[in-house]
Amino acid sequence: MTTDLTQLQLLSELEPVVAQNLDRHLATVKDWNPHDYIPWDEGRNFAAMGGEDWSPEQSRLSEVAKVAMITNLLTEDNLPSYHRTIEENFSSDGAWGTWVGRWTAEENRHGIAMRDYLVVTRGVDPVALENDRMVHMTRGVHAPEDFGGVLDQVAYVTFQELATRVSHRSTGRVCGDPICDRMLARIAQDENMHMIFYRNVAGAAFDLAPDQAMESVTKVVLNFAMPGHGMPNWRRNGVLMVKHGIYDLRQHLDDVVLPVLKIWNIFDRTDFTARGEQAREELLAYLAKLEKDVVRFEEQRDRLLAREAARAEAATAAV
């Protein structure tokens, strides 16, 4: 029977890995400026400054693109909640603290760039956007009650950063604007770098405490939810994004969960005790069910989109 490492032991044992990956990150990351990705020449005053307030016809974005941009931006807006949660479970000292500060500073660029883009191009109603921001940030984002400690958090942010990268890239493709696509591609690069950092730390945790790490990963995968959960209009917007492939079950399984699990060698590890094996078996059963759910979801979505296309064609023919 193995004895679990305490949170302090885990933080201490993993700190050299954090320091190494922090150095790697700082050596490879390329700094960028949000203002370089904004078409400022499209900007004009709103009514408070003698100009014209927003109206729907000013936006060039489709409904799907609007929803995706708002959802992604509001997700980034809750950075203070994420910072607080991560700092509480990691540390404000040493390499851990340096990383938390650096990660927060880099993530803050994303919200700055996306909001500037939407306001300058009048892509969405800025008043409604600000109202939603106030509601979402006041509510904050809270981890599930049984998510606690460094291993749960490192596992969660690994999947979450990769999921966010996928969402940003998908959103860029539906916006129909090469400037927006370029901006979101740059943001997605950051998310990928962050994912690699957390993935490497979690990988080291598997070598350090395999059973504990396996239990954390299983818990996170079985209870995963994007951090935008609970924002205004989340259910409606989430359904629309799923239906149009911004972030759906297939992407979650094939582009996020399985690639990370393979990097951690989840399926072939031989260093688990009975505890770890039980957690792995639970995860494998869940993945098998998720694959069936994905197939069923795709069939239902295809039928729905086909019906919508048929109705649209009939409506056009009737004009």
TrEMBL record:
- For whether the record's keyword set contains Lipid metabolism, the answer is yes
Give the family from UniProt: Belongs to the fatty acid desaturase type 2 family.
Residues annotated as coiled-coil are 280-307
Signal peptide interval: none
Provide the assembly information.
Answer: Homodimer.
Sequence intervals crossing the membrane: none
Q: Which cofactor does it need?
A: Fe(2+)
Check the record and name the Pfam families matching this protein.
FA_desaturase_2 (PF03405)
Q: Which UniProt keywords apply?
A: Coiled coil, Fatty acid biosynthesis, Fatty acid metabolism, Iron, Lipid biosynthesis, Lipid metabolism, Metal-binding, Oxidoreductase
- Can you name one GO molecular function term for this protein? stearoyl-[ACP] desaturase activity
Name of the protein? Acyl-[acyl-carrier-protein] desaturase
> What Enzyme Commission number(s) appear in the record?
1.14.19.2
Q: Does the keyword Nucleotide-binding apply?
A: no
- Which InterPro entries does the entry link to? Fatty_acid_desaturase-2, Ferritin-like_SF, RNR-like
